Structures are given as C-alpha cells and as structure tokens.
Amino acid sequence: MPATVIVGAQWGDEGKGKVTDVLAQRSDAVVRYQGGNNAGHTILIRGEEFKLHHLPAGVLHPDKRAVIGNGVVIDPGVLLGELEKLAQKGHAVRNLTISDRAHVILPWHTLLDGAREDGRSAVGSTKRGIGPTYADKAARDGLRMAELVDPEALRAHVRDHLPVKQGILRALGSGQVIDGEAMLRNTLAYGERLRPFVADTTTLLQDLHEQGQHLLLEGAQGTLLDIDHGTYPFVTSSSTTAGGACTGTGLPPSAIRDVWAVCKAYATRVGLGPFPTELKDADGEYLASAGKEFGTTTGRKRRCGWLDLVLLRYATRLNGFTGLCITKLDVLGGMHKLKVATHYTLDGQELRAPPARADQLERCTPVYQEFRGFAKLSEADTRRIVQRGLAELPSPAQEYLDFVHKQLHVPIRLVGIGPGREDTVEVRA
Ligand code: GDP
Ligand code: IMO
Ligand code: MG
After folding, report:
1. Which of 11, 85, 136, 401 is the most exposed place for a label (fewest CB within 10 A)?
2. Ligand 1 center to 4 CA (angstroms)
3. Backbone dihedral region for residue 140 (phi beyond 0: left; psi -120 to 50: alpha; all else: beta)
C-alpha cells in the first residue's frame, strides 16, 4: 500500500501532530523523517494534552509502530526525557524503533546554536542544536545513533571533536566550557539506555511497505522553513518538503502516493524572517489570542497574519499536495471580515510566486480578496458539524474554504474546528 506524507504547508505549527494522530488510526506505522526536537507537535486526546518533540504521534497508538527515521537529528537526553514523561502518564512506549543512521545532537551542537543565535546572524532558532548537527552531517563529521550505542566509537568521537568544538565556541565569544568527562559519562549512559530501540529502520520500512502495510510519514516544521525552498536564511536545516520523506526514511518516491498538506486557516510564524501577510493590529492580536498562538517548543509568541495563497500555491507545487487538511478554522469565528492574499506587488510588478531573497519578500505588498466573517462556533455547532459534515458550517466559512480549494486545485480532506481529536471533520474521497 502506498505511503502517505504529512507536510506543513506554512511555517510550522499548522497542527501536523493532530492530523497525524487522526490519520494514524488507519495506518500501520507512523514515521518521523526530518527535524529534531525543534518540533513541538500537540495532540489532545479526550482532554489529555501531549506535546511530542522527538517522538512520532504513533507512540500514542500502542498497536502501531512508531519509527524515527534516518533523516531526523536526535538529542538523546531529550528523547529519553520524553519517553520517561510518557511512561509517568501511563503511556510507556514499547513500539518505537530509531534509525541507526540518524545523527546525534551533542551538547556542543546546542551550545554552538545558542552562541550563533546570540551573535550577529540570528534566525530565531529554537537553540536546540539542529543547525550545527545537520552542518556536521553534511560535513561528514557527525555522530550517528549506530556510534552512540558503541562505547568505543563514542569515546573516539568525543576525544577527536571536543577540542575543535571548544575552540569554535571560544572564537564565537562563548564563555561556555564543556566538561569532557561529564559529557562522555552522560552520553555513554544515554547510548546504553537507547540501544534496545536502535535498528536499521531503512530495511524495516522497506519491508513493511513491501508487505503492504500503510506508512504515515509525519513531517516536522513546514514548507517555508525548508533548507532549499524556504525563506532562506530564515529556515531550518532540513528538507521539510515531501522529498525529505524519501531521503529521511530510505523509501523510494514510488512508495508514496498521497501528500497531505496541513495548513492553518490563517498564517503564523515563530522566529525571525519575512511574513508578507503579517498583521500587527487588532486582527493579529485576535488570532493570537483565539488561536492560543504560543510556541509548543519555546513558548515564544507566534506572529499571526492572513492566509497567503502566493506561498500556498508555491507549497502546493513543491510538494504535489493531493489533499488539504485545513486546521483552526474555528479560530476565525468572531471576525467581521476575512482576507486572503491572492498575489503580491513588488516595485510595480505583480508577483504570483515568492522571490528568492528574504529582503525582497519582506518588501512585497500582498493584494487581498475579502470574505465575510462568521460567528464563533458553539460547542453544539462543533458537534453538529463533526457529525454531519462541512455543509453544516456557516456559509461564509464554506465560501472561504471553497475559495482556497479552488485556488489551489487540491481537494479538502480534513478540517479542524477545535484542538481535540474529536473536533475534526474528515471528508471522504
Ligand atoms: P504542529 O507543530 O504542526 O504539530 O502544531 P503545534 O502543535 O505546534 O500547534 C498547533 C496548535 O493548534 C496546538 O496547540 C493544537 O492543539 C492546536 N490545534 C490543532 N488543530 C486545531 C484546530 O482545528 N482548532 C484549534 N482551535 N486548535 C487546533
Ligand atoms: P513544528 O514541527 C515552527 C523555526 C524557528 C526558527 C527557524 C530555525 O512544531 O512545526 P531551528 O531551531 O530549526 O534552527 O530554527 O525555524 N522552527 C519552527 N517554527 N514550528 C516548528 O516545528 C519549528 N521548528 C523550527 O522558530 O525561526
Ligand atoms: Mg509545533
């Protein structure tokens, strides 16, 4: 059975965790394929909230497999902490496999990320060590899970790299001194505890796929944070677009049929970088407060704005979306009017695709189409819409969704009208 990829269509935090959780019920395995603990995926099940950073949403489905693929970067202490927290809540994870080829975030990566972020070239990073770890991977200088769980290989890596990394930290003006002995002791212990989970997930996933199992590939971050296609340099360091699902798992492109976009009914961005439809007025404040727009990983306030079809068309073509999952439609309830950017103008020219440079995107002026707003949905409205389908939505909300789907030429497959698993309207093909 072909695999399905879940991709964030905007700048992350679109609700991928929730959508993955809903779709996981019809899958055999849930697989993370890129990013690390810069991600924060929230899942609300019958009032209980889970915030997953490293773990795929599949860990909350004990009868499914949960896999961390080779394209992910892993902070072993954070991953173990996450496993412990789940166990304390009564959800001990027994269905997890971690790729032996996934790269390890070591303490110097986190310190280097912080030092860079505090310096002159800040991008608003989550300071989780993601960029420096992917940089070492590309430089063929990283440590993988296969070596983390081998004490000899780990000792040799730390011995060879610590003086260099300490030197770079000094050169960046950081006063941080790494205690090599303590670091090695902790990391050896992490390797010991994670060893039972580590395996060749490339072969595992290929086998499962060939056996006809359905794999759900859970993206992290979003299209506009992609290292190649995002708003560079204000991006993350991995391939967040659908192609990353192949390189980050070892599955061939022919194994994938559906690529589902997760897209908020408006737009948000956390961290620095251009955001043409950003609202710095009462409407922006309304979205932030109604949508509870605070980062899941860092707690930072998310910037809010109108939906941007220039960027969504770009995301649709990059990923080849076959289905749209529109989340947080309920948050628009209570606004008098709604706006959607259809194109930009820049220096007197009309633009239908984003320019390459962040400073040019910053200067783009969005041109909007206006829509009628609709009243806040009551609990009774929500239950009725979930039970009977999208035809029960207020008509301005239907017009809004219809416009988006027609502009992108992608069918709507799921609509979120509340944070819970049960606040989801699925549209069967
Ligand atoms: P992710 O990183 O893409 O998984 O998204 P986050 O979990 O960081 O942020 C999405 C936030 O929106 C979370 O707090 C979710 O509980 C919440 N959420 C998801 N879908 C909906 C929805 O349809 N309506 C509302 N009101 N909240 C939602
Ligand atoms: P999920 O999976 C939103 C942003 C950071 C920063 C930039 C680079 O929850 O959607 P990094 O730490 O990756 O070097 O930061 O990317 N960013 C995210 N924004 N959601 C995320 O993940 C993000 N992961 C990274 O804010 O602007
Ligand atoms: Mg998030």
Report:
1. 85
2. 20
3. left
Task: Summarize pLDDT for 275-295 with one digit per residue, the tens.
Answer: 999 999 999 999 999 999 998
What is the side-by-side strand order in the sheet with 256-264? 198-199, 96-99, 65-68, 29-32, 215-218, 3-8, 256-264, 323-327, 412-416, 424-426
Look at residue 428 in the predicted model and tell me its pLDDT: 83
Preceding omega of 253 cis (within 30 degrees of 0): no
| CB-CB contact of 47 with 107 (8 Å) | no
At 371-429, the pLDDT tens digits run 999 999 999 999 999 999 999 999 999 999 999 999 999 999 999 999 999 999 999 87
Helices and strands in the chain: count of H runs, count of E runs: 14, 20
- In the chain, the domains with their CATH numbers are 3-97+212-259 (3.40.440.10), 103-194 (1.10.300.10), 263-426 (3.90.170.10)
Residue with CA nearest ligand 2 atom 5: 125
Give me the percent of the chain exceeding a pLDDT of 90: 94
Q: Which of 32-36, 77-81, 292-296 has the lowest average pLDDT?
A: 292-296
Catalytic residue among 41, 54, 61, 209: 41
* For the CA of 16, the nearest ligand: 1
Report CA 413 to chain centroid distance, whole Å: 19
- Residue 179 annotated to the active site: no
Q: Which two tokens stand for residue 344?
A: 């930009």
Which residues lie with the beta carbon below 6 Å from any ligand 1 atom?
8, 12-18, 39-42, 44, 296, 327-328, 330-331, 416-419
> Rounded mean pLDDT of 8-31?
97
Our answer to whether residue 13 is catalytic in this structure is yes
The answer to whether 38 and 251 have CB atoms below 8 angstroms apart is no
pLDDT given for residue 48 in this prediction: 93
Q: Using DSSP bridges, classify how beta strands 337-346 and 349-351 pair: parallel, antiparallel or unpaired.
A: antiparallel
Q: Is the pLDDT of residue 269 over 90?
A: yes
Minimum-distance ligand to the CA of 19? 1
Distance 279 CA to ligand 2 centre (A): 20
Torsion sign, CA atoms 208, 210, 213, 219: positive
Nearby residues of 241 by Cβ (< 8 Å), 6 or more positions away: 7, 223, 226, 228, 229, 315, 318, 319
CA–CA dist 261, 419 (Å, integer): 17
299: left (phi over 0), alpha (psi -120 to 50) or beta: left
Q: Which of 13, 28, 226, 423 is catalytic?
A: 13
